[in-house]
Design a protein that fits this description.
mainly alpha; three-stranded parallel beta sheet; 3 strands
Length: 98
């Protein structure tokens, strides 16, 4: 799906990441996106927030309560998550310009 939409240069999919590498990956990420349909707790969102990375998550499970006002929530479909991500990066660009 990533390649078919021409996003290969913008999205990196990692598999089998060692626990010792996670903290560094979160710290260097532009954002953490959690497109969960039913999240039990939300460790990826929590780890992203802990690393100071903007979090975009679906409005499902425990994620709204976990994120509160600290992240952006969207419906768990591609269009809604993309719109939230676009808003996030627009805000980031404005802050960098200050």
């Amino acid at each position: 799906m990533i390649r078919s939409r021409g996003l290969g240069g913008a999205v990196t999919v990692l598999e089998d990441v060692r626990d010792g590498d996670l903290a560094s990956l979160y710290r260097h990420a532009a954002a953490v996106v959690v497109p969960s349909l039913d999240e039990g707790f939300g460790f990826p969102a929590l780890e992203g927030m802990s690393a100071g990375v903007p979090v975009v998550a679906s409005r499902r499970g425990a994620l709204p309560e976990l994120l509160g006002d600290a992240g952006l929530l969207a419906e768990p479909d591609a269009a809604s998550l993309a719109a939230a991500g676009s808003g996030l990066f627009g805000l980031w660009i404005m802050i960098k310009a200050l």
